[in-house]
Amino acid sequence: MSGSDLIARAAALREQLEYHNHRYYVLDDPQVPDSEYDRLFAELQQLEQQHPSLLTADSPTQRVGGSPLPEFQPFSHRTPMLSLNNAFSDEDIEAFDRRVREVVAGDVVEYEVGPKFDGLAISLVYVDGVLSQAATRGDGYSGEDVTANIRTIRSIPLRLEGPRVPAFVEVRGEVLMLRADFERLNQEQDAKGEKRFANPRNAAAGSLRQLDSRITASRRLAFFAYNIGSAEGEPLLRSQSELMDWLGEMRLPLCQQRSVVKGVQGLLDYYADIGRQRPGLPFDIDGVVYKVNSLAAQQELGFVSRAPRFAIAHKYPAEEALTTVEAIDVQVGRTGALTPVARLKPVFVGGVTVTNATLHNQDEIQRKDVRVGDTVIVRRAGDVIPEVVGIVPERRPYRQVPGKDLFDQAQEPEFAPFEMPKTCPVCGSHVVKEEGEAISRCTGGLFCSAQRKQALWHFASRKAMDIDGLGEKLVEQLVDEGIVRTPADMYKLGLAKLTALERMAEKSAGNLLAAIEASKNTTLPRFVYALGIRNVGEATAKDLARHFGDIDALIHADVEQLLAVADVGPVVAQSIVDFFAEAHNVEVIEQLRAAGVNWPAIEKLSSSNTKLSGKTFVLTGTLPTLSRDDAKARLETAGAKVAGSVSKKTDYVVAGTEAGSKLVKAQELGIPVLDEAQMLELLLE
Ligand code: IVH
Question: Is the CB of 85 inside a 6 Å radius of any atom of ligand 1?
């Protein structure tokens, strides 16, 4: 090849690689298999190795990171990177809109809106379309040059594309780490025995501020553009949303949740909508950002001190907060699992006051080294159970311990490490922790009143025998008074025994007895689920019932027969065999049947006799007449699977009112969306 052919070939390869890169990392829609990308990459790499003069800064081969820097160079921003004022209430937003309308004519202002990413602000400088420098925000005027590290982020274009590439532009946006990549990184840190990152933001910051860009290259970072600093030779743009479209056209990654809304109501609706989506988003956000859409109006509004008057951040309640551990208690679950729970100094987090947080198990406590007295980070995201993310080591007091000599003064934490009890805190039975298992268990079984209570409560629960009125408190009383020991005892209860209980009036006792009586007519899946066999949830109980058709076949099934059931693996099969190997469990079943508990015969599953078998449904929002559980049950009876999230494998999404991100996802993926009536029709067909 001649010199000019070589240059042209290298340029063509770079262009193709960046195109496929964009399809893969930004659009999530690769056009060629990885092997094709690898082939093009290898060819370019070879060309550059043979002819080093061909190498350019915007070559995709430069995304792998280079030799470590001695330090970061300071970088002055041409246009300062300012911050945003925060709003916390609807009133704050009304006031913001009022201030905007004092300057901008018209009753209803149009706003460009998007999530407020919880990452690090970055400025990307493109000269003639080529990424030439990238810097952190720093104090807003001067940051650090992190160009080598930014190049390793695959979704950031090394060269801008399209018909409207300017001579110069500073693109502003946020670098962050997706939650899934953060979890993976922490698992890797564990495996290497290295320190965990407290949250995705810290992980993103730690990964970007690496003098060795090869480390940054090994971490998965994401980027979303949200604005520009200065530009030269940019097209005529009238609004923020046009500006965003322009950035997208040049292949800069934009977040899908951006939108344009009108007036205060539009802003508040958007805030509520993103708030609902927040727990399910792939990244952390701490609010939403509203910007007056018209760029002329933005100019007119200008800035007050260090923040724009045309934009504001509307924050959500923080998902993390600091508090102290007052005690660590150990709870005993239905299957005997001991769960350490941190009793916390009450703290407002995720919109509620939290006083307890799970510490999961002993391994977790050890790994995080949580001790009574420690200051901890508590996290509550969405409706997830609050958890202790980690301690703040700087807040732990240490005392001097005299050592062997004057120069060997050791430091020792004031607080003692937590240890799991050797005996059950409720029944005193031995606690075992199996090799390779994280969970410690009380060996007391149904002798342990904590396990008995949980087992009975589970038995009576709505998705099991559905005994209305038999809640946690009542079960506790019945067990503590020695009235009920096994589920079968519940069917021997009489009015006299019940009304003798504290706070139990004759009327509610009567209602309860009626509910117990009504629960006798049940279904086999419910009954199997109610038994509370370890590792057998609602779905497995259904599979087992359909596969075996009656309880006796299930009782006598061996591991091999159980493994023939769809979705039953060796662990589940063993739990089932273990359960029925206990004579008292089989005895209780006999007693329950003798007491009149019954279910209609069930047709054994033959996978083709149901009209929706093999189809996967996802339910979202509130349906007009059916409860979520009802709809699920009907679909499952027809052989369909009901999944929790929308993916390419979803066949139908059934949407009711207030349907959120699942509906959006379905529309994006082109999955048919049904309303309740259409779903019922499908079931009738
Ligand atoms: S616009 C002049 N949009 O929030 C307007 N900022 O408090 C400049 N941030 O340092 C910012 N998501 O790191 C804007 N969608 C978004 C944002 C966003 C996160 C951060 C940014 C900035 C800070 C300002």
Answer: no
Tell me the one-letter amino acid at 665: K
Residues of the chain with pLDDT under 70: 402-409, 603-610, 685
Tokens found for residue 567: 């979705």
Distance 172 CA to ligand 1 centre (A): 9
Domains and CATH numbers, the chain: 3-64 (1.10.287.610), 86-315 (3.30.470.30), 320-329+342-415 (2.40.50.140), 421-605 (1.10.150.20), 616-684 (3.40.50.10190)
Residue 116 is a catalytic residue = yes
Query: Residue 61 has what DSSP assignment?
Result: G
Cβ–ligand 1 contact at 259 (below 6 Å):
no
Residue 176 Cβ < 6 Å to ligand 1: no
CB 339 less than 6 A from any atom of ligand 1: no
**What are the Cα distances from residue 41, in Å, to 37, 60, 84, 131, 211?**
6, 8, 41, 19, 26
117 in contact with ligand 1, CB cutoff 6 A: yes
The rounded mean pLDDT for the chain is 90
H-state helical runs in 65-155: 90-103, 147-151
* Atom from ligand 1 closest to the CA of residue 288: 15
pLDDT for 307-337, tens place per residue?
999 999 999 988 888 999 999 999 998 888 9
Q: 105 alpha carbon to ligand 1 midpoint, in Å?
A: 26
Rounded distance between C-alpha atoms, residue 181 and residue 187, angstroms:
10
Distance, in Å, from the CA atom of 325 to the CA atom of 341, rounded to the nearest integer, reads: 10
Between the alpha carbon of residue 52 and those of residues 43, 56, 60, 133, 607, the distances in Å are: 14, 9, 15, 22, 62
Report the greatest alpha carbon distance in the chain: 102
Q: pLDDT tens digit string along 506-552?
A: 888 899 999 999 999 999 999 999 998 988 999 999 989 988 989 99
Give start and end residues of each alpha helix (H) in 258-312: 263-277, 295-301
Tens-digit pLDDT profile for residues 206-264: 999 999 999 999 999 999 999 999 999 999 999 999 999 999 999 999 999 999 999 99
pLDDT value of position 99: 94
Mutate to test the pocket of ligand 1, among 79, 82, 84 (most ligand atoms within 8 A of CB): 84
Q: Look at residue 408 in the predicted model and tell me its pLDDT.
A: 61
User: Which atom of ligand 1 is the closest one to the Cα of 311?
Assistant: 5
Choice from 141, 174, 292 to test ligand 1 binding pocket (greatest atom count within 8 A of CB): 174
For the Cβ of 255 lying below 6 angstroms from any atom of ligand 1, the answer is no
The Cα-based distances of 267 to 19, 112, 271, 613 in angstroms read 36, 9, 6, 43
* Global confidence as pTM: 0.66
Closest Cα partner for 454 from 565, 550, 532?
532
Look at ligand 1, atom 24, and give the residue with the nearest C-alpha: 83
Neighbours of 40 (CB within 10 A): 17
What pLDDT does 406 receive?
60
